[in-house]
Amino acid sequence: MDDYLNRQDYKHAWRLQHVQGFAQPGNRGGHQLVMDVKKRLIYLFGGWDGFQDLSDLWVFDIKDNYWTQIFEHSEQFNGPTPRSCHKMVFDPVSENIFMLGRYLDNSIRTTEYIKSDFYLYDTRARTWLQICDDTCQVGGPQLMYDHQMCIDVEKRTIYVFGGKVLTPRSVNASTTSEPEYSGLFSYHIATNTWTQILVDCHHPTASQPDVLSIKSRITHCMVFHNKKRKLYIYGGQRGKEDIHDFITYKVDTQTLEILNRHPNSNGQTGSTGNNNGNGSSVSSNSGSSGSSNPPHSSDGKNEPSPGYTLRATIDCERNEIYVFSSLSKIKDRRDIHHVDASNSFWVYSLDTHQWSRIYTSRYNPSSPDSTKFDNSRNNLMEPCPRYAHQFVYDDMAKLHYMFGGNPGRSTTPQLRLDDFWILELEKPKRDEILKHCRYLVRKLHYEEMAKADPYKAMHYLRHQIAEVIDHSNPEQLRNFHRLASLLFKCDEDIKTEERPLNTLPLGGATTSMAASTSANEDKSLTEAECSSDMASTTDDEVCVKSEDNTHAPDDLSMESCSSSTTSGISDAASSYSAYRKSGGKRSRHSYIQELRARRSFLFNKLVQLMPSNMVQPERNLSDFVII
Questions:
Q1: Which own/partner pairs from 608-613 qualify as long-range (CB within 8 Å, at least 24 positions apart)?
Q2: Which of 179, 190, 108, 115 is nearest to 155 (CA)?
Q3: Domain around 95
Q4: CA atoms within 13 A on the CB side of 238
């Protein structure tokens, strides 16, 4: 079942973390979170509380569920001054935190203040160190904000890409100059040296033949895969443009590649320049930020829209990139009461190169709590849409943590959040699949029995079907109750209200074989006869030994078609006789044809759980064999 399980989408579950003690970080947005996975610690620094920048440093102990404030004012202990829109990375080797960048209000953007200071926090010694007063003076980036940072632990290198460069305000300037954007830089920890790898495409040196350039941006996502040794950069904005490209940069060979080649208005696609010293560059496809795209999609494509606030993490073991999408970045739509206010969560598989949207939840403005809302579909509490929040991933426990942010309330623009959330992603387990297989077989048997012997069917429902139902699952419980109503329906009601068995309700997109079954009724006679054996009074023939050992997938086997092919006909005939005795009015031919089609449909569905080499030729049940 491994292939089937891997194809399934995740199920998500948010929960609001109620911490021990009274001390915890206050309301804020534009702060930073980093995680020490080995010691089970999360560090938080700074941010904007709606009135001022902060310089406090906190640590959350996951095991003890407890926040501790390390510094209230870090600048008093040789640390950074109050700031927001900065970036931090954690080095698991040295157990140091590196911090770079910040946002400055236009009123204080003077030459004296605009310096790109670079800090280190030693988590073991609990001390701050200013590595550099201004990275721009030593070959590093200028002061910027809304950039991204990642660390290559193996090569002891930090990568910094994008962000808007802060320049001294010009009091006498009559026109507003074009904003500057920062390129791609690397910082080697061991030698304390900066290197510029790519310049922005509008940089003065970008036209030189030996200079590599890239279209820089802000509010993008960037993660590093330590095994593939690649940076993955997705989305972003530049001015009023949304940038839709998905770029990889291989750090060892310094090569760029665009993963999503979408045609632009000229019928061209984004391209990577050849790395041969001819002034290579990466172009991107941009769309109007005011376009009326479907929520959380990019021009109708199945991928997150860069027009929304995105936060990305990566799991290098699973080869997956996770993207949490929330409020729109556009100012006139950046309101929690806007029609597009919603959250969505996406997964990008580096193996299949495909996006999957795990869920989308729209905000309910009638919710009494501004920090969480009730998703009517699954009745789960979830965080309200926001921006300026932070998101970290625990790749050991496979959990995401989110803190704070700006809910975008136009009526209270100073409001910031202090809620702390945990997101868990889970795929179906083998025992759940096996249990569901039993449910499908027993459900079909019950539906046939309900037409022929309602009293016997009632007992079957109460015992055999009830034991394969998760009564704590509202959806399964509703389906269970719905089955009871079949006992009181006539043929016409059953025929019009039966739900097609087209997919397994486990999150995956399973292809239905119903059309081919009905279109080739004569050809599939043998298939129907074989499948009728599958739907006999017990499902032991489907899941051998699984009643006692649901965790042993090797014990799962199917009834071979070498059994008597006439058993299906005789079974159908006896079933029809009982059906007529109970008052059924349908013709024998119509009854048996429907019976065969439904059983064949179920068998086709169960076959999809197994490796293709167990069905030769694929999906041909008449040639089905046991291996």
A1: 608/4, 608/510, 608/511, 609/1, 609/4, 609/433, 609/437, 610/1, 610/4, 610/558, 611/3
A2: 190
A3: 10-171+179-262+302-370+380-426
A4: 22
For the stretch 231-281, pLDDT in tens is 999 999 998 899 999 999 999 999 999 998 654 433 334 434 334 333 445
Distance CA 146, CA 216 (A): 11
| Alpha carbon distance 250, 227 (integer Å) | 11
Which tens digit of pLDDT belongs to each residue from 320-339? 999 999 987 777 666 666 76
362 domain-assigned: yes
Whether the per-residue pLDDT at 417 is higher than 90: the answer is yes
In this prediction, residue 271 carries a pLDDT of 38
How crowded is the C-beta side of 256, counted as CA atoms within 13 Å? Answer: 24
What is the spatial distance between Cα 60 and Cα 55, in angstroms, rounded to a whole number?
17
Same domain for 440 and 418, yes or no, is: no
- The domain that holds 345 is classified in CATH as 2.120.10.80
E strands of 273-394, at which residues? Answer: 281-282, 286-288, 308-315, 320-328, 342-349, 354-362, 372-375, 380-383, 390-394
- Per-residue tokens: 86: 């900065």
> Which DSSP helix (H) or strand (E) runs through 145?
strand 144-145
DSSP string across 435-447 = HHHHHHHHHHHHH
Encoded amino acid at 608, one letter: Q
Query: CB under 8 Å to 27, separation ≥6 — which residues?
Result: 49, 50, 404, 415, 416, 417, 418
Tell me the one-letter amino acid at 540.
D
Task: Convert the pLDDT of each residue in 241-252 to its tens digit.
Answer: 999 999 999 999
So what's the pLDDT on residue 372?
58
Do 237 and 335 sit in the same domain of this protein? yes
**How far apart (Å, rounded) are the C-alpha atoms in residues 450 and 5?**
33
Contact at 8 Å (CB) between 54 and 31?
Answer: yes
Residues 437 and 487 in one domain: yes
Terminal-to-terminal C-alpha distance of the chain:
14
On whether both 407 and 464 belong to a single domain, the answer is: no
| 99 contacts 125 by C-beta, under 8 angstroms | no
Within a domain: residue 118?
yes
Does some domain include residue 440?
Answer: yes
Q: Is the pLDDT of residue 530 over 80?
A: no
As a whole number of angstroms, the distance between CA 336 and CA 407 comes to 6
Is residue 532 over pLDDT 90?
A: no
Which residue, chain included where needed, has tokens 């030996």? 210
| Calpha distance 463→482 (Å, rounded) | 16
> Cα–Cα distance between 61 and 420 in angstroms, integer?
13
- What is the average pLDDT across 208-222? 92
What is the number of structural domains in the chain?
2
